[in-house]
Each structure stands twice: as C-alpha cells, then as structure tokens.
Fold Hydroxylamine reductase.
Amino acid sequence: MFCIQCEQTMQTPVGNGCQYAMGMCGKTSEISDLQDVLVYMLQGVSAYAHAGRELGVIDAAADAYLPQAFFSTLTNVNFDAERLVAYTAEAVATKTRLKDAYLAACTVQGVEPKQLAGAAQFEITAEKAAMISQAPATAVNRGLNDVGEDIVGLRLLVLYGLKGVAAYMEHARILSKQDDEVYGEFHRIMARLGEDPSDLNELLELAMACGHLNYKVMEMLDAGETEAFGHPVPTKVNMKPVAGKAILVSGHDLIDLKHILEQTKDKGINVYTHGEMLPAMAYPELGGKYPHLVGNYGSAWQNQQKEFANFPGAIVMTSNCLIDPNPGSYADRLFTRNIVGWPGVVHHTGDDYSAVIEKALACEGFKYDEIPHYTMTGFARNALMAAAPAVIEQVKAGNIRHFFLVGGCDGDKQERNYFTEFAKSAPDDTLLLTLACGKFKFNDLEFGDINGIPRLLDVGQCNDAYSAIQLALALAETFECGVNELPLSLILSWFEQKAIAILLTLLALGIKDIRVGPTVPAFLTENLINHLHEATGLRLTTTVEQDMADILG
C-alpha cells in the first residue's frame, strides 16, 4: 500500500506515507489498494461524463453516484472491502453506460469521438483479487519517477481537495441540493486528474478551481441545512450525561439525527450529539424542537474508542470519522450509516431506526445525572450577521482589536496542544471564532465577553467555514477594505481531506497569510510549500508566542 492523504501519515525509512500492512488509520493494505483502484476507475467514469456533457448528455444517476463513491475513500470512512468492491462494480457499469451514451451522441450529432486517455482507458473486473492485482498501476504516486515529487504532490493536492468537495456534495445531496453546473465542474476536474497532468501551472489552476467549486458546494449545503432545520441560534449545550437510556449520534448528516429524534419521541430515550454533530443543538428544528436531545457527549473523533466504550447505549456514525471499534468492545452497539462502513458492524439503511432504538432500550443507559458543564454553539451565518453591527461598533470603539479563526480538524498528536495554548493566549480584546472538531481543543474553557459579545463564537461544522467567510465579507464591506486588510487571522488545523478542500477554498478566494498546522501535509514538497507561501502567504504554525507576536506586532 501507499497512502499519504491524512495528517497522521507515517514517517517511514523510505519516505512519507503509510506503506506497510496497515495504515495509521487502521485500514489494511487490501482496503488501501481497493480504494486506489476505485478512485482511478471513478476518474475514468468522469472522463465520459465530461465528454458526454459537451454534447448535452447528462446522466443524473451517475452525477449522484460518483461523489458518493469518492467520499467512501476519505480517511476514516469506509473500511469494508465488500462495499468498496460493490462501488467499483457500479463504476464499471456506469462507465459503460456513459461511454455508450457518448458514442451514440457523437453518431447522432456527426461528431468524431474523442480519443480519451489515462483513466478513461482503464478496464477491470470488479472482483477483489482482480482489483488488488491492478492496484500498483493505479497508486496515487504513479509516475513519480517520470515527473518528480513536485508534480505528484500537486496532483495529490487537487485529488485530496476534490475528495473533500465530494464529501460536501454528498452531504448536500442528502438534503436534496444538487446542481448541474457543480457536477459538470466536478467531472471536469476528475477527468483531467485521470489523465495525469504534469504542468505545474495547470495543476495550480485545477487546485484553485477545486477551491471555487467547494465554495459553491458549501453554499448549497448551507441552504440545504437552513431550509430543512432553520438558521442556527446561539445555544447553551450541556456537555455532561443525564440519567436514562441513550443514543449517541456522530458525524455530519443532520437529517439522520432528525429521523432519530422523531422516532424516539416519548420512548424514554435521551439523544446526544458527538463530535461534528454538536452544532445540531443550535438548529430550531433539532435542538430547539426536541427536548430529549439533551446535550453533547464526548469530544473529537480521535477519542471515540474510549468515549464510545463508556457510552451505555446505541451509537450511530453518520459520516466520517470512524476508527476501529473492536478494542473498545462496543461494536455490537455501533451502527454505521450512509458512506461509513466497518467489517462486522451493522450498516443501517433506510430511515427506520427501530433496530437502533431496540438496542438503546436493551442497554443500561446512564444511571445518574452528572453535574452540568456547558458550552455555546450556534454562531453560524445568520447569527453572525445579526451580531455584525454590534461587533463593528466595538471595533470602532477600540474594544475589539483583532479576530482569530482557530479551527479545523482535531487529532491526537501532542503538537495539537498549540491550538489550545493559542486560544488561551489570545488577548482579552480579541474575538475567537472556531469551527469543526478542532473546537474541542478549547471549547470547554471560559473566555468571557466584550460588552456582551462572547469572545468564543462556535461557527459550527467544518463546512460552516462558509458562515465565517460571509462575516469576513460583511466586515470588509462595512470598513471599505479588502478581506486581507481586516484585523483577522486564520489559524487552521488540518487532518483529512475536507480540511484540504476548505483551505483551497480560502486560497481561491484570495485570503492570504493563513497559518496551518500542526505539521506539513506530507504530499506537499518543500518547493510547493515555498511556492504557496510566495503566492498566498500560506505558512506553517511555529510557536504560540512567535505567531501571536507576528500577528499582533
């Protein structure tokens, strides 16, 4: 295997990347190989989807399927070999259908068919043994000896960014938000990647195109969530258990939580959010409507083996990030959903959660109430915009000196304490915005307020970076300046591919001087880091003291 897509990638004697029998995330070499083959096959499918679109051939089923299958290859999503093989079988069938439709359109319109290259020519039988035998030819570092590590690194930057985009496209699709232009651009970038481009400038343009695409997708997802569940409102959330039977819901897909809440009414079951699901507490049609959504249990994804083992009820994982449930002996209480999968764990399909409810009722539940401890969430787009006049007034009065956006993915490396210490060291006349599971590094701390404005504002999930961008644009308009002239600094933690997609979005929008940590993405070479720094000011975190002094100096 060779996998280099996440922050916890191994540092090996032969270079960066997980290259042994098992990756740091727990996926085996078999799973890694199956994912490589699936990704390459999907690039070939997109090649025919893109070619067909130029002749007016649009296949809605293929549009919906491709991002979903691509999402299954993200870090900590799907570890189930049989489901990966099934996705590949569907890819084979979809490619054949699209190719036939494209050739038929060429005949009808009197157009000479294009001679598609690269992944478009890849053929395989969707059987596990055949896929594994073909894996070396599809490995993500293919062509390294021919084009060099800078070009391969840029290909991977685009590939991993597009994986993050695909995940958000699937989250939006579940909420009935789809767009033909979005699918068209997705297929265009996927198809080009399947041809293994080797021009540095073209690859940089593809990376920025990926960022612009993700901005549109986050806008769609924001619309899907707010139309379905209302606009989040600032909400105080209990972070401690209360007595009673219990269901824990983790991941990102709010619609699954909605179904569970509706079906557990009057059943004596308390429902808790976990991880990236915490912001659901602030939606009027979720936390504001169901009193048995009693709070949040646990913290970020990397702590789930301990936290899930101690949770005395049923657990539903709606999306990333899943890790091996077996060491915690809770696999029999865990249900995967949507794209998520683990061998031997029950995969829930459909909207009837009876099996989850039965499991929760059979479990012990919490025996007593713990002393409450609260955090705030719900400072998403509408709440931020409503607060903007008061914030602007405090800026003009000199009471707010600077804004810090400190958020992103969490993880288990010791270096991530940087983000806790950075938040703690932010001066009292500064505001802290946060989002994604990186918030758990400091959202249990007290930061006080500035004349009634909370100093810590939890914007929401990772995709809610869209809300923070809207606030920045509003502030820039009010102060008649560019976003980069605002007293605003972005300090981001990355772990997986959604974070890469958001970073590309920020860079594509022209936001400069972003700090990223805790380590360099292993697929970016020193040359590429230097190039991005020169072009955008992108830099790596150093020490809290040095970075704070540089920002405020």
Observations:
- Residues 200-229 form the longest helix (30 residues).
- The chain has a mean pLDDT of 95.
- The chain has three domains: 11-228, 235-362, 381-552.
